Amino acid sequence: MKWRAEWCKNQKMSARIKSDYITGEIGMKRIVKRIVKRNGMAIAAAVLLIALIFLGYLGMNQMGPFAKKETPEWVEEVWLTPNSYSRPMKPLKEVNNIVIHYVANPGTSAKNNRNYFENLKSTRLTKASSHFIVGLEGEILECVPLTEISYCSNDRNGDTVAIEVCHPDESGQFNRETYQSVVRLTAWLCLHYGLDEEDVIRHYDVTGKNCPKYYVEHEDAWEQLKADVAAAMGQN
Ligand SMILES: [Zn+2]
Fold it and tell me: Residue 135 and residue 152: Cα distance in Å, rounded?
């Protein structure tokens, strides 16, 4: 009678499987559940491995949480939260120019502008950021580490470092404190990358945009700024 009991059990089982198919219970969910149950450890190991490879990639590229501050102590490190609108964590592999910009928002502070970049992760208004912002009191904020690109200079984002500069009024001219910090920072960057003052360019030189306004409209002031950078490099 044993075979009969076995036969009955098999019948019941196949009936259950049939009903599962009919009710759709044997679907992806159930299959996934079974795989996870059987291969739980293997899946956990695979996920862990992928995570380790990703973290290793970030570490090797000195990006994200593994980035090291390279800049002098007079530069304040306030990196943006990684996000695809202002800090995409794409590696900056070479630097051929330093690009100067103006914020085009008279009287705003470096912190205001840094917060604008930070908030793009939620506002999603546009893709924008800058490696540095120089403020009205001469303060220098570093928003994106030098190992990563920023979204500032259009198709030159991949091989330039960007500096956004605050200005007190519509003319776009930098005040004394701001100007001195721009010169100091730019000179440091030139020395750091083996560049000279002729490698310092304006956003205008990349796209023709009127940025930094005053230094596009006053060629002599721009030439003077580059001369001051060269002089500051000599002092270092
Ligand atoms: Zn610009």
Answer: 17
What tens digit of pLDDT does each residue of 25-70 get?
557 777 777 777 888 888 888 888 888 888 887 777 778 777 888 8
Mapped onto helix, strand or coil, the DSSP state of residue 64 is: helix
CB 110, CB 139: distance < 8 Å: yes
User: Given pLDDT bands bounded at 50, 70 and 90, which one contains residue 7?
Assistant: low
- Rounded to the nearest angstrom, the distance between the alpha carbon of 94 and the centre of ligand 1 is 20
User: For ligand 1, a single-atom ion, which residues have Cβ within 5 Å?
Assistant: 101, 203, 211
> What fold characterizes domain 70-235?
Lysozyme-like (3.40.80)
pTM for this entry? 0.79
- Cβ proximity of 63 and 139 under 8 Å: no
First to last CA, the chain: 99
CA 212 to ligand 1 center in whole angstroms = 6
In b/e form, how buried is each residue of 43-59, taking b as 16+ CB within 10 angstroms? eeeeeeeeeeeeeeebe
DSSP 8-state code for residue 87: B
229 C-alpha to ligand 1 centroid (Å): 19
Q: How far is the CA of 101 from the centre of ligand 1 (A)?
A: 4
For the chain, residues classed under CATH 3.40.80.10 are 70-235
